[in-house]
Design goal:
282 residues, eight-stranded mixed beta sheet, 33% helix, globular
Length: 282
């Protein structure tokens, strides 16, 4: 999204940019610095931050539910890359594979819920021979599965797993966040058809099912499937693109912004370098 974003910023426009911001941290850094210099509002659209379950998860963490984090796991898998057909996301000329697609979401969640990632060890896989836009074998395929082991600045260790190669049947995609800390555990498991959020504190012997409070569900029909609830919330609450517009109208700060997008892009760059060199990368 680098060329169009830079043009929009040069014209003095506020910019909401899809994730991932760019093809490299250098491009994302230029976009961020330009937005800051122009004094405009800027947002990177990490959609999971606006979803009710994740917002409540963030609140519980802010209230020290798990205390000091020990182990944090993030996983999102689907099957939309299994057919081997061309998609720009899986072409290295245009994207960074599933690492840039679903991986950018999970990296941002890790930053938001746990803290800064300082080191990465990555294994990136390309599982199928993919066709190019000319119906010939693609010469520059990008990864379709990615496994990242990460270290956080606060001492926690983590794992981020994303794939477009998992057959999920009626669930379509599976999304999981598991956070284990000194004071307790929080687990979130969701797909297009089911949702479960559980928690247990140190000293308790059984997990409890967590219900998201009503203030997070304003205008939302709880009887709908989880992701349909999210789409409804995007239409009825000041989140996502509505939050971006409201920030412009009321001159308020915006999050997640380009700085958040740049932090994610730096981790993506480190993961790509880790795959190349076979080592940990800061």
């Amino acid at each position: 999204h680098y060329p169009m974003t830079m043009d929009a910023l040069a014209a003095g426009l506020h910019v909401l940019c899809e994730k991932p911001m760019a093809l490299s941290a250098q491009q994302a850094r230029e976009m961020t610095e330009k937005a800051q210099a122009m004094g405009v509002k800027h947002m990177t659209f990490f959609a999971w931050r606006f979803e009710a379950y994740h917002r409540y998860l963030h609140q519980l963490i802010s209230e020290e539910y798990i205390g000091r984090p020990y182990l944090c796991q993030f996983r999102q898998v689907g099957g939309y890359g299994r057919d081997g057909q061309y998609a720009w996301r899986f072409d290295r000329k245009h994207g960074n594979g599933i690492l840039g697609d679903l991986g950018s979401h999970m990296i941002d969640l890790a930053h938001w819920l746990v803290g800064d990632i300082t080191r990465v060890s990555a294994h990136l896989a390309t599982s199928v021979a993919r066709m190019g836009p000319d119906a010939r074998p693609l010469s520059t395929p990008a990864n379709d599965s990615a496994l990242l082991t990460v270290e956080f600045a606060n001492g926690a260790c983590g794992a981020i797993v994303v794939s477009a190669m998992a057959h999920m049947a009626e669930r379509e995609q599976l999304h999981e966040v598991s956070l284990y800390g000194e004071a307790g555990t929080l687990e979130l498991n969701t797909s297009t058809v089911e949702f479960l959020m559980r928690a247990v504190r140190q000293g308790q012997t059984q997990f409890e099912t967590v219900t998201v409070p009503d203030e997070y569900m304003l205008g939302v029909d709880r009887s709908l499937p989880p992701w349909d609830q999210f789409y409804m919330a995007l239409q009825t609450q000041s989140i996502g693109d509505r939050q971006f517009i409201d920030a412009i109208l009321n001159d308020r700060p915006v999050t997640p912004n380009f700085e958040d997008g740049l932090r994610v892009q730096a981790v993506i760059d480190a993961a790509l370098e880790s795959q190349r060199c076979g080592c940990w990368v800061a």
